[in-house]
Every structure is written in C-alpha cells, then in structure tokens.
Amino acid sequence: MATHAAAPRQRWRRYGTSYLMLLPFLGLFAGFLVWPLANSLYLSFTKFDGVNAPEFEGLENFRRLLFDDDRFRHALGNTFLYVVASVGIGTLLSLGLALAFSGSSWPHRIMRTIFFLPSVTSSIALMLLWKWIFNPGDFGLANTVMTWFGGRAVEWLATPGLTIPILVLMSVWGGMGYGMVLYVAGLNTIPQEYYEAARIDGATSWQQFRRVTLPLLRPVTTYVVVTGLIGAFQVFEAVYIVFRGTNNIGGVLDSGLMIVPYLYDQGFTHFKLGYASAIAWVLFLIIFALSMVNLRIGRALKEL
Amino acid sequence: MAVAPTTTPLVADPAAAPRQAPAAGSGATWRGHLLRLPFYLLSLTMIAPFYWMLITVFKPVTELNRQPPSFVPEHPTLSNFYDPGYSPTQVNPGHLQGIFQRFQVDFGFGRFMFNSLVITVAITVGSLLIASLAAYVITKHRVPGRRLIFLLIVASMMVPWQTTLVPNYVIMRNLGWLDTYQGYIVPALAKAFVLFFLVQFLHSVPDELIQAARVDGAGEWRIWWQIVLPLLRPALAAMSIFIVLAEWNNFLWPLIIVQSDEMANIPVALARLNTYFGGAQHQGAIMAGGLLASLPSIAFFLAFQRYFTRGIVLSGLKG
Predict the structure, then answer these.
(1) A60-303, what's its fold?
(2) Omega of the bond prior to A107 within 30 degrees of 0, cis?
(3) Distance between CA B120 and CA B116 in Å, rounded?
(4) What is the domain partition of chain A in residue ranges?
(5) Of chain B residues 208-247, which have a CB less than 8 A from chain A?
(6) Does CATH number 3.30.420.40 belong to domain B109-265?
(7) Which residue of B has its CA nearest to A246?
(8) pTM as predicted
C-alpha cells in the first residue's frame, strides 16, 4: 500500500505516451459521439427549437410520438413493411446468386461484378436515375417497357400503392450483390469433403443443399439479415430524392414516409429538435434491440 | 467472436477467385445453365438502368422526351456536360445549361468534385492515423483501462449514427463550423469500426517485433510510424476502400451542415439540381452529374478490388 501515493505520478511516467496516443481518437470519440448521444437523450425530454434554451417537459415527446402522432405511426408502419419485404426478398436473392455464381471461372466473376456494381455507385446518382426511369411521361423507361407489353403509362411515383413496392425494388436491386458477396465468402469456407461424404451416402443435390450448405451458412445468414435490417431501418436517400414532394417529405399521402426522413423533416425542416431527438431514440432502441439479438444468436451458435 | 458486430463493414471482392465451387447444378452443364437462367435474366435488369443512364448523358436536350425513346443516341453530344450553344439571355429550347454551367460558383461542378475529393482524402487519412495510434496502444501497451475503453468503442457500433444528428448539428452551429470543411471532416474522424478492425488485425501481429524495436531504443511514436503502420498496411488498405466509398457518397450529414453552393459535396449538389429542375429536358445534365459522381468510385473500386478480399477474410465473419 506504500506505493499507492506515488502511483499516479509513476503511472503517468510509465503510460503518459500511451495516453497521449489514445487521446486523438478518444477525444473525438467523446466529443462527437458519446457527448452528443447523452445530449440527444436529454434533448428528447425537452422542447427545443434550436434558438431558445431547451425547455424540459419530461416524457411529453414520447407520449406524443406513441399516442398522438398519426404521421409517426404511419412512418413506423411503412418502415416495418419496407424492412421486412426488402430484407426478405433481398436475402433470398443474395443466396440464390451466391449459389449460382460462386465459381472462379470468368463468367461467374463477371456476373458477380455486375451484381455488385450498385454497391460502389454513388447512391444519390442511382436514386436520380430511378426517378428518371419512373418518369410519368410515356418516354420514361418504365413506361416504355409497359407499352411493350401492351400496358398503359403509369404515374409510378404519384400512386400511393406503388410507393413501398418501388422502394423495395430499388433496395433489393441495389443491395442483393452485397449479400451475394458475403454468401460467396461463406460458401467457400465449407470444406468440399462434406459434399463428397454426402454424395457417397447417396444425397441428392437438394439434400446436400438442405443438410450441408444451409446449416453451415447460418452465421452468414444471421449477419446478412441483421445488417440488412439495420441498414433498411435507416433508409433516407431513396425517400428524400425519389418521393419527396415540394412540401411533403413522405411523397403522396405520406406513402413513403419512414423513420429517418420523418426525423429529418421534424428536426431540420420544422426545427423541432427536441421532438426529432425523441424520434432518434426510438430508432436507437429498435437498432440496439436488433444488435442484441445478433449478439445473442452469435453466442448461441458458438455454443452449439 | 462468432458473428461480427452489426456495423462492421464487410468489404469483399466480388471477382476474387474462391477456393472451390460448391454443388447445386454445378459446372457448365445444360442443367446448370438452365438453373441459372433466371439469374442471367436478372443480370439484364442490373445492366439496363446503367445503360439508360449512359445513353441519357449523351442525348441532346430535344431527344430526351421523345416517344418512343431512342436506345442509341441518334445525335450523340457532350452538351449535357457543357453546351457552348447555351446563352443566359437568349432562350432556346434546344440548348440548356450543361452540368458544368448549372451552378454560379467558380469551376461549376468541378468545385463539388474538388470538395468531395478534399473531404474524402482528409477523412480517410485522418481516421486511419488516429485509429491506428489507438489500436496500437490498446493491443500492445498494458495501459490500465484499455479493456474498458475498447468495450465502450465496440458497444458504440450498435448506435445508429442518426441519433447524434441533432446534437452534432448544434455543436457545429455553436463552433461556427456549418458550411466549412472542418464541419465535414472533424466529426467523421473517430470511426469505431475502423478501430475495431485494426485491433483485431494487430492481435495477430507478434509482440516480439515491437519488443525488439524497444530494446533497440526506438520511441513509441517511432515504433508506431516505422513498424506498426507498415505492418498494418493490408488492413489499412481494406479499410480505406470502405471509408473512401462511404465518404465520397455521404449525403445526410452534408445535407444538414451545408448552406452555400460553394461548400456542397457532389451528392448535395446533385440533390439540389433534383429540387430545382424536375423536367425531362434537364435529365441529361443531371445524369451527367450522376455519371461524374459514380465513375470515380467505380474506378477506385475496380483498381483496388484485390484489397477487398482481405476485408472479408480479416473481419469476424469467418470465425
């Protein structure tokens, strides 16, 4: 215990450089992540317009969000629908693509590059492209294709019933190549001997897929699904670029209103910064819960 | 770690040669091709939008709203980039501003490309430097509290960054950093996933190398610069690809902090064009802007594709 008094100085002499090397990262981490996080929790309990000092009003923002705000409920409903559809369809297609094009021959590699291309293309450029493709005029690409099949020109972006399907389409189109690449990496960790053993036992290729491939891909599937869910909950650009009207962020009848666009709308169009912080914390809780599920599944798989 | 935390980037090279092809109608048999047929058709729907973008860029204004549309530009032109026939005083429906004439800032659209480049390079270099310093200390120094610090940083990867949007906006405003480069760069420097990735990588580097340098009398900063950084090179390369693509295309944060035209990055500039010009006759210039936004990131990816493989091998997915 005698050394205890001298400890701080000794410690500084010994670890001073270490702490100094940690400082840039930790300082920025604390200043732009930890502190803002705490601050946003505080702001979510206040009324704050960005000009006057925040006014504490307890759980009022959350009460309004959950019980009084039809637009928020609508945004939640839209988001859930979009998330489930886009992740479900996207994951299935990713797996299919990986099974189809996992080889090392050049046709497979070209196919993989084609499907991966949207992942490295400017997302704003892609959204502008979709908006142009779904142009209501009969010269738009989507409407031209419609006429080939004897259909009529459609007001794609002004028909509320089409909003979520189009958002899902854009998300699946842009994201399935990424999932595919993860699945290909997963497929290549499966030892070829397993398939040989299965074939010797007389397993058909469907049985091999069902009993060997699918179970061994489970960690990859968990990863693809959970990261997909988390990414989909944060959708913003597709709504903001493709569907936003002149004075309504969510498109016609709010048919494309989602959590993050609503956060942006309340916080940075109407400057209800307290309310926007409450929305941010609802998003936080959803994503935190998903991450915990991910960790728990990961741990459970490890124990198997 | 069985499954990597959810926000760890998994970057991979789609064209990399895998070790073997698994079963499922494998090989180039007719049955294999038949099974793959739906996916071959699907690949056409991948290419079609890109093709549509490309031909739109080279169509003259008068060809953009023709019905039926042309699928090869009949009078290919570069006027969507710069139209010498355009005059601000004389209205002529056949000549509109090209993308480089749409903004009243010096160098036009080039200014936004410059902004995007400066921001992307600064964030990539800066975030890798500070994360490698911290990762070196966390893995190779026995500082008290390092476990707690690492745990805190890993936990933060579960936070959606939008949660910090409002407070960070207020911080930027109070610092006077709205509409500045530092407003783009400084809040983006401490990246938890980069630190996490580098720590994992450094764990596999034997301590002896560093011990040996210490015995030779090298200081900690020199060890970091001359030994740790070169050792980290593959990890830094994999991370830099991920950071470059993310920052080049970053949109929501710039949308909030940018006020003037001069300080916009490419995505914000394109979004503004989208707000101002909705008509079909403007889509050639807008698609030209989209092409200028996309080509650098696609080229960057194709050039450094091989480093992408390491990203996926090094991250938690495998274990």
Answers:
(1) MetI-like fold (1.10.3720)
(2) no
(3) 6
(4) 60-303
(5) 219-221, 224, 245
(6) no
(7) B275
(8) 0.90
